[in-house]
Amino acid sequence: MDNSTTTENRKLASQNINYWKIVLIFLSRWYWVAGTVLISFVMAWLYVRSITPIYITSASLKLDGDQQQQMAALPGSPVNYRPFNQNQIQTEGIIMRSEDVILNALKNLDYKISYYLEGRVRVTELYPKQPFQVDILTQDSVNFSRATYSVKPVDRKTFELSSSDDNNKTSKKYRYGQAINAGNMVFTVKTEIPATGNYSFKFNGIRDLYGRAAGGLNVFEQEKNTNIMGVTHTDSNPVFSANVLNEIIKQYVKNDATLKKRSAKQTIDYLDSQIAFLDAQVNKSGNKLSSFQSSNKLIDPNSDKQLGNSKLSNLQNQIAELQLQELGIQQLETQVKNNKDRIQLNLNLEGTNSTLLTGLIAQLNTLIISRENKLQNFNTDAQPIQDINRQINEVKQAIVTNIRLLHERNQKTINYINGQIAQANQALSSIPAKQNDFAKLQSNFDINQRMFSMLFERKLSAQISSAAVISGATIISLAQPSYFPISPVPKKIYSSYLFMGLFSGLGLILLVRILNPYLYDIETIEGLTATPIIGVILKYPKKVQPGESVLSIERPKSIFAESVRSVRTNLSFMASDQDTKVICITSEVSGEGKSFVSLNLAGTLSIIDKKVILIAADLRKSKLHFAFGSDNRIGLSNYLSKQADLADIIFTDERHNIDYITSGPVPPNPSELLHHKSMGTLIEKLRESYEYIIIDTAPVGLVSDSVPLIRKADINLFIIRSGVSKFRAATIPDRLSKEYGLNNIAIILNSFGDEKLHANIYTTNYAHSNTGTYYYSNYTGYGKSGYYDDEKSWWEFWKKKG
User: Fold this and answer.
1) For the chain, how far is it from start to end, CA to CA, in angstroms?
2) What pLDDT sits at residue 304?
3) Sorted alphabetically, which Pfam families does this protein's record hold (predicted)?
4) Between vectors from CA 73 to CA 69 and to CA 76, what angle results, nearest 5°?
């Protein structure tokens, strides 16, 4: 009962984080970190050497909004199809990336043949340099081979050529200037190929470079809230990037002016058609007036009705103006409903083109341009195209609604003026018939004459405006080749890879610790179990040879022997009331050093003239007899099975002054033999002759053979081997204590090597522990104190022994 109570009152040791231990963990594997950093540095070097550098070139344009406003102020001037507003930068970027602008720009470049220099790591494009001349004699404009042709000079007259389309990579010899028929084309190599370097070339179509030209193009607002547009282009060849960017912005400026002149031309064509019609009307009304004067002999009719005629003339003139506006509105309505291209307002008629309508048309044009741009990447049934078509239809519907409102407003105005004309005609009804007819003819002639003059003036103004049209964008600075790559940047790559290697090394240390299932140090054990640790036996620095197991005697001045003696000292505090102490040594699994600890503990006890006997009680797989050179033909199994007497199985090792009993032949029933009362009788007989009876038992985690011995023993030592025993092993002593009501179990940490990588980051606070602790040292840092006779390290060969 007392034993059980004492066991249950034990508590786990109080532990605190030791930050210096955390530092030592990482310092213990500094070479891992150094290795990962070195590997990362090599990877960065290979990456920098292998990746093709990317260069950026830039240019800038000014969007001339002031010039557009001046043109809009001219009478009859065309309204620009892209009014300047805060979204114009984005709109202009879409236009600049349009297919027409890019393809026209590429036509001005020498794009048909690309030359390459093949290096050991990467292939470099030589544009604009031509190391040798290749002429195209005939070529299919679309269906020709895009293969890469590798060339190698043979002598000053011939060379070898191979194609990437040829799976066999066979080379053929040709003469310089000889026509070569390959890939739906005929070409010739005109000049001699340089002898140094591996050169190749390929043929390009204009659309082959379209993606390269458009993909690297970027448009942005260079300064906030300004009309300065910045344009950049990225490419692996800085000269090509600068050349293609300059051609793109030139074509963009040219295209802008062309579209504006097209709008002015449409206005002039419309005015010409109206002028021709009014010219015929003026001639017709003039002839009628002249005939009426001749037939009625009226030379200069003046009457009191001149004021009424003048009023009637003004009203009819207003009707004509409104009808002209109605024609313009109808033309715009037809264009919106039937045309899928961008909309141009042909006439700037006062009162017709409201600000709302102008904005809607600008929005429609922007959406149409966006759709044209998206159609390069999507088909007509794609969701993005359907979405933008829906937006276009909504804007068109808004424009049609706005036009309908203009129709209604004009119609109301016409109806009102017609009412005024009817009143004026009624006032003139009392005029004599001839004078009245003359006045009507004169009024009709005057109206046609005024309409003709007005349209002619507007045509002249439109022609002046067309002649004065310039692009709405001005090039501020052209692109220049930049030979400083934006990618890869060696400094950034090396620094990022350096940090990656550093964190990889630290992460590797953490990963190894996380995945580690083994026990290594005292603090970890103390954090898992309340069973006291009686001592720490150090790891022997060399491999133990057969016959050298009792190292505590063979190396008595070594630090290892001192660690065993520390365990011997603490044993004196356990079962102190017993004259003879039965010590049972077990562990969880085999290979944790039970026999090794038993031998060395027995050796240290024999040195101080203690009468010791060592029993190999692992009847299944004992190795104890190898340490004494015994053949194990007779032993404990023979005695328990009554095949031998006690005197027959006790042997003495004169070298180490230790009595021992080997396990003997493996019996068919080892567990039953150890449970037999004969084992208890044996222990009682040995108590009469020995002060210490050390029993090396089977691992308790594998078989139950050692259970009866554990219950009979005065002291039970549970062996945990550093780096071999797993975490669950530390909980077994507590389970044994609780299950069998024992308070005589202690732990020995065997083969401790001060492995800092797996060290516990906590330090035990023994002042607040309730585990029944014993004093011992792990001897860390004392190996070179001068008190021990350990062999020197290999790097200390120069030191003399003495």
Assistant:
1) 57
2) 46
3) AAA_31
4) 125
Burial per residue of 358-368, b for 16 or more beta-carbon CB atoms within 10 angstroms, e otherwise: bebbbbbbbbb
Name the helix (H) or strand (E) containing 402: helix 383-427
Tell me which DSSP letter residue 173 carries.
E
741 dihedral zone (left: phi>0; alpha: psi -120 to 50; beta): left
Give the CA angle between residues 59, 64, 70 to the nearest 5°. Answer: 165
Residue 522 in contact with residue 759, Cβ under 8 Å?
no
Where do we find the tokens 């879409």? 94
**Which letter does DSSP use for residue 207 in this model?**
G
Tokens read off for 599:
């031998």
Q: Do 90 and 77 form a contact (C-beta atoms < 8 A)?
A: no
In angstroms and rounded to an integer, the radius of gyration of the C-alpha atoms of the chain is 53
762 confidence band (pLDDT: 50, 70, 90):
confident
In the sheet that 185-189 helps form, which strands lie side by side, from edge to edge? 134-139, 185-189, 180-181
Q: At what angle do helices 30-50 and 19-28 cross, to 10 degrees?
A: 60
Q: Which helix (H) or strand (E) holds 210?
A: helix 210-215
Q: Is the pTM of this model over 0.90?
A: no
* pLDDT tens string 48-107: 988 889 999 999 998 875 444 444 433 344 444 344 444 678 888 888 988 889 999 999
Residue 183 DSSP code: S
Residue with tokens 């040791």: 13
Tell me how far apart the alpha carbons of residues 400 and 335 are, in angstroms, rounded to a whole number: 11
Exposure string (b/e) for 67-104, b if CB count within 10 Å is 16 or more? bbeebeeeebbbbbbbbbeeebbebbbbbbbbeebbbb
Give whole-number Cα distances, 7 to 42, 570, 571, in Å.
58, 19, 19
DSSP three-state, residue 290: helix
C-alpha–C-alpha distance, residues 149 and 151, integer Å = 6
- Higher per-residue confidence, 269 vs 349: 269
Tokens 């009469």, residue? 688
Among 556, 612, 625, 553, which Cα is nearest to 580's? 612
Residue 528's alpha-carbon distances to 33, 284, 418, 510, 521, in angstroms, are 31, 118, 108, 21, 12
User: What number of other Cβ atoms are within 10 A of residue 120's Cβ?
Assistant: 7
C-beta of residue 126 within 8 angstroms of C-beta of residue 238: no
Beta bridge partners of 535: 748
Residue located via tokens 């149409």: 368
What size, in residues, is the chain?
Answer: 802
Helix (H, G, I), strand (E, B) or coil at 371: helix
**Please, what's the largest Cα pairwise distance for the chain?**
175
The type of residue at 690 is Y
Q: How far apart are CA 700 and CA 519, in angstroms?
A: 18
The pair of structure tokens assigned to 85 is: 């507003």
Token pair of 320 as six digits:
């004509």
